[in-house]
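Batch 3, record 17
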Amino acid sequence: MGLEGETATYFKNAYDQLDDCKIQEDDNEQVLNQMVVWALLAFATARNGTTPLSSSTTTATATITLTPMVRYEQPETLHEIDTSSDPAYASDSMASTLSPGSTASSDDSGEPAAFAEATPADSGHKTVLVTGGAGFVGGAVAEALLARGDDVLIVDEVNDYYDVRVKRASLAALVARYGAARVRIFEGDVADAAFMGALFAAHAPQWIVHMAARAGVRPSIQDPFVYVHSNVLGTTRLLELAARHGCRSFAFASSSSVYGEGAAEVFSEDDAVDAPVSPYAATKKACELMAHTYAHLYGLNVAALRFFTVYGPRGRPDMAPYKFIAAVCAGREIQQYGDGSTSRDYTYIEDIVDGVVRALDRPLGYQVYNLGRGEPTRLSRFIGIVERCVGRAAVIRVCPEQPGDVPRTCADISKARRLLGYEPRVSFEEGIARTVAWYKETYMAEEGLPQQPQQQQEVEQQAAAAAATALMTAAAAKAQALTALPPAAVVVVEPHAPTAMVL
Ligand SMILES: NC(=O)c1ccc[n+]([C@@H]2O[C@H](COP(=O)([O-])OP(=O)(O)OC[C@H]3O[C@@H](n4cnc5c(N)ncnc54)[C@H](O)[C@@H]3O)[C@@H](O)[C@H]2O)c1
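Prediction for the assembled complex:
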């Protein structure tokens, strides 16, 4: 970092403060980077009195290199994992404890539940490419496909958005249950042309369930570029390969977040969704547009599946259902964003998996489907249900509502009912009860102490957030003090390079 003058002193102090706060650990790299950019922007805005993105007199120079959260390896060739010899996939205790969360079927017969069907399913044996198969929904879909007799090729870069041991354990559990011949795992980036090109050249998958993505609204505000990379570039890469290799059915995960803030009471696929309120939502909308283009140009059958807040056993640790259950079980504080009146249409994983598999089996040109329940639950009621299922009162800290979050989601699922025979079965109370049971069985030791690997990470993240808030307060005060100075500074944030400069 090259620094000169008063600007330099300020940012050096800010940077040192970050060092003191110890928030430059790997997991918090994004927080650190974003804080530095915000501080630079706050400073330059104060000096300019207007937008920082204009030219001005150069008085000082500071160049800060920001490191992306994930360093992409670009394998030259196909990187298939030999799960029998790779120690990262050892069938350890975590893998075995994950098994109670099986989502393969909704009854004891091992068969998917049978519903009235509007469209005949292509029910022959399939080899399905499942991207994001190390993740929550992708892993559950892969398991359901394997349970009914299909084979899967799983592609996942196994990134550290959350604990990679959870992801590898989930993959290891699939291999242990169904065998390495039926579950083939390829670690890599779906956006990587060489890697994905080699995979399609070798296997030419005709059936694709594309779940790989950067998920989560708030982190997408901190680092939109990684979202554009995985979600937009990654989906385009797959669509291109799918079209070239004559894929028969391509089902991919979109999101209810595309509906944004101004949406109607009940969200219909016919609503206009051109006003996303987070980079994440914008990438999902972009994926839908690109999918439509490929359907139009090449006759590709693509189902864009707008999931409504998925939860359940093996759920994502960054999402409220998991976080609330983990915190209430441990007697830790939970953060309630807003006054508790916001509501979400929570959908149990088994119902989502059923919808994904139905869409895969019924290629119908380009279709958008809502996959939700159509019954939103208020945040305050949700916390009450968690308290009842855990058997313990929640310690609640009320926090301001978060930017990018929408106040309410509610799916109109009539189209999925009509064309797919989709029918969500699991009530929110039942789903939370099952998730609490899974959580306790998986992570609570005999003494009742939570053993989940995310706990330490959460504590560190909370400390980092507190440090970041302290820094922002300091940055705001300093920026305010500097408004009296003549305009002299300008910030250039280069959109494509992880670099920010004060000139
Ligand atoms: N869980 C929800 O409530 C929810 C709601 C709406 C939409 N979705 C969408 O559903 C899909 C699955 O979500 P999830 O909750 O299982 O998330 P997840 O984070 O558990 O799984 C996503 C997986 O994709 C992998 N991945 C990310 N970028 C990749 C890349 N470039 N190349 C290869 N692998 C990559 C990750 O390593 C991860 O294992 C995502 O597309 C998400 O946006 C989820």
